[in-house]
Design goal:
The structure is a single chain. This protein is mainly α and about 140 residues long. The chain folds into two domains: about 1-90, Orthogonal Bundle (434 Repressor (Amino-terminal Domain)), CATH 1.10.260; about 100-130, no CATH class. The protein is built from eight helices and two strands; from the N terminus they run E-E-H-H-H-H-H-H-H-H. Helix 1 runs antiparallel to helix 5 (about 75-85). It is elongated, with a radius of gyration of 17 Å.
């Protein structure tokens, strides 16, 4: 995945949570101090997060930052995915959905057992989006 930031193309492969959070904050011309003020999190803590000196934000803290930065859906999903990957967990916005829907668990197990690959999952996602008029 590639993003454009201040006229430069950025390859998201290898980008860490903190780097992406900083990029998003700066793209909205919000200083670290201002983000700190609006979220109630200390500026040194946020700096440690952005510089990957500490774990990515928890779900609750991340949701606070998402509101302040007014991120679009793609940016939000990317942050959740990066945080989950770095914590070696499922992205924090997904466990409730998975736990509340037995068919999701069954689908994931079936896909795992059948060794479904990226191409098969992409077709599935494309079909869902088509049905919702998003594809």
């Amino acid at each position: 995945m590639r993003l454009t930031y201040r006229g430069k193309g950025i390859d998201m492969k290898g980008v860490k949570f903190g780097q992406y959070l900083k990029l998003l904050r700066e793209s909205r011309d919000i200083t670290l101090r201002e983000l700190s003020r609006q979220t109630g999190m200390s500026a040194p803590y946020l700096s440690d997060v952005e510089n990957d000196r500490t774990q990515p934000l928890t779900k609750e803290r991340l949701e606070t930052v998402l509101r302040v930065l007014q991120l679009n859906e793609e940016e939000q999903n990317q942050l959740f995915d990066l945080a989950g990957r770095e914590r070696n967990e499922v992205a924090a916005d997904l466990p409730d959905y998975i736990m509340d829907n037995d068919f999701v668990t069954a689908a994931l197990r079936t896909a795992r057992d059948l060794k479904a690959g990226e191409e098969e999952w992409q077709r599935f996602v494309d079909e869902l989006k088509k049905r919702e008029g998003r594809g």
